[in-house]
Amino acid sequence: MSRRKDVVVLGAGRIGATIARDLDMGHNVLVADTNMSLLQKLNAKGINIAVLDVTNIEALVALVSRADLVVNALPGFLGFEVLRTLIEAGKNVVDISFFPEDPFSLNDLAKKSGATAVIQCGVAPGLNNIICGHHATAGDVVSFECWVGGLPKNPVPPFNYKAPYSPTDVIEMYTRPARIMKDGALVTVPALSGVELVDFGALGKLEVFFTDGLSTLTQTMGIPDMSEKTVRYPGHAELMGVFRDSGFFGEDRIAINGCEQAATFRDVTSQLLFPKWQLGHDEPEFTVMRVKVVHASGSKSVYDIYDERDPVTGFSSMSRLTGYTCTAVCNLMLEGKIAAAGLSGIVAPEFVGANEDNFQAIGNHLESRGIKITVSNHN
Question: What is the pLDDT of residue 1?
Fold first, then answer.
């Protein structure tokens, strides 16, 4: 039996905790965060913990020095610079942080340091990229579309929403322009635009709208038409558009009576919204995802995923889908299968999915955690 590997997980939030507990079944895991309350909950499960401010580069490098793998499960505003530090330290990384910077700008650095980093390896971006890469190996994909979102089962007006991951990243998703491919050209459209009502069967009609979830696919796949849309209850996009367009999500500092304040409009809005968006530990919720892949022949493959909170572990559906996609890739990395597939440097998740064995291993891992993926093929 191979030895248990040493893994450091940066971030003890909902998804970081899910990743840590899953990996701890087969490896030696240490979780680092500034939030002692979150860390203590993990420590009570027998997981090693460390208090760490990741902006302290010396402390971060020292903490990960003996790790076989580091998981970057931090919010997007911290993600890119931490990833750069880890790569400079020569550490292999699986990254789920949602940052706007171009990850491929770190490829030369990763090659030089000998590090391999599978980036943006969550659900979307992440699992959707893996599915896209699996189909794109045939070279005849003409259209790729992904709809995904996590929602409370009992929506409360006016937002009809609870955040299953960092609310900061939710606001970023509502403000960051969405990059899509249309007729072979990269096009930027406003987040929250392109609203459609879609019938999700037993869930009824939900709305979908453009967000920036394609990530690296716009650079790597060469597919002429691609888009990603977020799923919400009807009316949410319009309400969030009012907040955004009125400046409530802005980064400008507030000036009161001519005196500039330390807080930004987004800071104040966040403080007001986040308590209302807080997903309760036992609150019933679900994540729905639909991926459509169309080939030049006209044949279509549709992937449907529906998941709910696990009452045994307490993990939310978004934590499960994001976390278990990440841990599946972590296992591939630790088993040497990412390197065996010829992947190194900055690795987009679609490159992982292009390898048939690795694609199947990820699907098997998700299935073993109770996540069902229904695939329908149409000619």
Answer: 38
